[in-house]
Design goal:
Structural class: alpha+beta
Strand order of the largest sheet: 1-3-2
CATH topology: Arc Repressor Mutant, subunit A
Low-confidence stretches: none
Distance between the termini: 21 Å
Helix content: 55-70%
Largest sheet: 3 strands, antiparallel
Mean pLDDT: 90
Number of helices: 5
Order of helices and strands: HHEHHEEH
Length: about 100
């Protein structure tokens, strides 16, 4: 049975369509990071980087929590698992289709 094809998938895949945002997700897969640590390897102004984070947050893929003066970002596991379920369903369709 097909998973619910909500607008969330459009947000997930739209957010991940940008290489900077994919790099952020890949970094956060290794653990939470401060915004400044996440931004450091990217050659862009901080406001531009923050817009990328905002897209990921609105898509439900990243969560940011303020701890004192530092903002810590982590992956939102539910969003990642939801995408993984949809991709697994697509893979099953392709593997079981008639050639």
């Amino acid at each position: 049975m097909a998973p619910d094809m909500s607008d969330a998938y459009s947000k997930y895949f739209g957010a991940l369509s940008d290489p900077t945002r994919r790099a952020i997700v890949e970094t956060l897969a290794r653990g939470g990071r401060s915004v400044s640590a996440l931004a450091e390897p990217h050659d862009m102004a901080l406001p531009t980087f923050l817009r990328h984070l905002q897209v990921l947050e609105k898509a439900g893929l990243v969560r940011t929590v303020k701890k004192g003066r530092v903002r810590i970002c982590t992956l939102e596991v539910a969003g990642i698992m939801d995408m993984q379920g949809w991709l697994a369903w697509q893979r099953e369709i392709w593997e079981n289709r008639d050639s």
